[in-house]
Specification:
This protein has twelve helices and 18 strands. With about 425 residues, it is α/β, with parallel strands linked by helices. It has two domains: about 160 residues, 3-Layer(bba) Sandwich (FAD/NAD(P)-binding domain), CATH 3.50.50.60; about 170 residues, Alpha-Beta Complex (Polyamine Oxidase, Chain A, domain 2), CATH 3.90.660. It is globular, with a radius of gyration of 22 Å. The structure holds flavin-adenine dinucleotide (FAD).
Length: about 425
């Protein structure tokens, strides 16, 4: 609440801010949660674009489901997820690929993984591009997958960062929307909306958080905004953050990842359609298209890295056209006749995030723990970029919020 004096102020009501607030509430710590936007959730956001059609604009998959706390939480709140997806199909060189090419791709994956895993513990680091096969006809496909996982192209990502991610191979989409799940399970804490924090003055015994609508003072602050926001200077820190913290922020830049939805008025694919089609033909990057997930009459495409930035700048219509052209390459030009609506996200342009998620630049994976490190037992940091091994995920953000709340709340007593 603006005008109040609390034990802990939290900046940002995305997953990390909401989980921090829930943890503080459980420990009866007095807190104020300030959110710049008109809604909670941040990068967890489901929009019901038509009655009964919930589309995730941000997180959608329960990544590494075997260790993901949201699997149990989803079940408890009556949400459904798909743990039984069929293998995808690849359309390349004007045709659907067969078992031999599929094996080639699998072998390429294994080779790349082995090479990256061989990086000695105490050795240096490399960009992913330097430790993956560049000569295979399937390199563009693997690069595209890296750009989705890390939101950056392989030349801009640390191998150590990629390898530190705890991947179990189980990624389950949420039927009613992951954003809706977050709102349901974490949305019952008090939040002050439309309250962008512009200045954090931590020069005195109490921290002052200044918004256009008033101030909050607190003994400690948990900052959960993205590295895109932290690096932009939109929040002024007085005194300035120390050099090592600014270095951590700039070493973990936000990349981009966008979703493109094509909404059909009927099923044009039939029962036998694969769950996912990746099209590698024609101009531009490859794209993976999920076909009729959960039986919804939609196709859901994903772009990542520089190409996502480029397409986002080209606009929503150009994004939808790109996905439609790719679909036509695989299924023929009449397939899009029944598209009635399209939608594309634009995370780089989101003023409260400024990108999709963070990846460590080559040589910088150690910066995640520095980003998470508190300053003077007064400024605490949380959010997806702080997570060393569940990076770029909803559950990583969730755990980091709880950790920061426990550290900040614990040190109050
Ligand atoms: C397109 C896309 C797809 C993704 N897919 C998946 C997926 O399938 N599975 C998965 O696990 N993860 C996925 N993620 C990642 C996941 O969504 C994020 O890791 C997570 O939501 C980040 O939460 P956060 O709390 O760290 O940050 P945020 O969600 O960015 O929360 C920070 C909050 O701070 C607010 N804020 C900003 N500036 C200020 C200010 N000055 N004052 C007050 N408040 C401010 C913002 O509005 C925001 O609400 C995806 C992300 C994107 C963008």
């Amino acid at each position: 609440m603006l005008g109040s004096s609390v034990d802990i102020a939290i900046v940002g009501a995305g997953i990390a801010g909401l989980s921090a607030a829930s943890a503080l509430r459980q420990h009866n710590v007095d807190f104020s949660l300030l959110e710049a936007s008109h809604r909670i959730g941040g990068r967890a956001y489901t929009e019901e674009v038509m009655p009964g059609l919930p589309l995730d604009l941000g997180c959608h998959w329960l990544h590494s489901a075997d260790l993901n706390p949201f699997v149990e939480i989803a079940g408890r709140h009556g949400f459904h997820y798909d743990s039984s997806r069929k293998p995808g199909a690849v359309f390349a060189g004007g045709d659907w690929i067969g078992p031999d090419q599929r094996n080639e791709i699998r072998r390429l994956h294994d080779r790349n993984h082995k090479q990256m895993a061989a990086l000695p513990e105490d050795g240096g680091d490399h960009a992913v591009v330097d430790m993956t096969d560049r000569d295979s006809p399937w390199t563009a496909l693997i690069d595209y997958e890296v750009s989705l996982d890390m939101a950056h192209d392989p030349d801009a990502v640390s191998v150590r960062d990629v390898m530190s991610y705890r991947r179990t191979g189980e990624d389950w989409p949420v039927k009613e929307g992951f954003g809706a799940l977050i709102a349901r399970c974490l949305g019952d804490v008090p939040v002050t909306l439309n309250a962008a924090v512009e200045r954090i003055d931590w020069s005195g015994p109490k921290v002052r958080l200044v918004t256009q609508r008033g101030e909050v003072s607190a003994k400690k602050v948990i900052v959960t905004t993205s590295t895109g926001i932290l690096g932009s200077g939109d929040i002024r820190f007085d005194p300035q953050l120390p050099e090592w913290k600014n270095e951590a922020i700039s070493s973990l830049p936000l990349g981009n990842h966008n979703r493109i939805y094509l909404i059909f008025d009927r099923d044009v694919f039939g029962e036998e359609a694969p769950d996912r089609v990746t099209v590698m033909d024609g101009d531009g990057a490859p794209i993976s298209l999920d076909i009729r997930p959960f039986g919804y009459n939609i196709v859901h495409g994903m772009t990542g890295g520089r190409f996502a930035d480029w397409l986002e700048r080209a606009g929503m219509e150009a994004s939808a056209d790109f996905a439609m052209e790719k679909l036509k390459e695989a299924y023929g030009s009449s397939i899009t006749r029944h598209v009635v609506r399209t939608l594309a996200t634009a995370w780089r342009g989101d003023p409260w995030v400024k990108g999709a998620y963070a990846a460590a630049q080559p040589g910088q994976s150690h910066q995640r723990s520095l980003l998470a490190r508190p300053i003077d037992d007064c400024l605490y940091f949380a959010g997806e970029a702080c997570s060393p091994n569940s990076l770029a995920t909803a559950h990583g953000a969730y755990w980091s919020g709880i950790e920061a709340a426990e550290a900040a709340g614990g040190s109050l007593t």
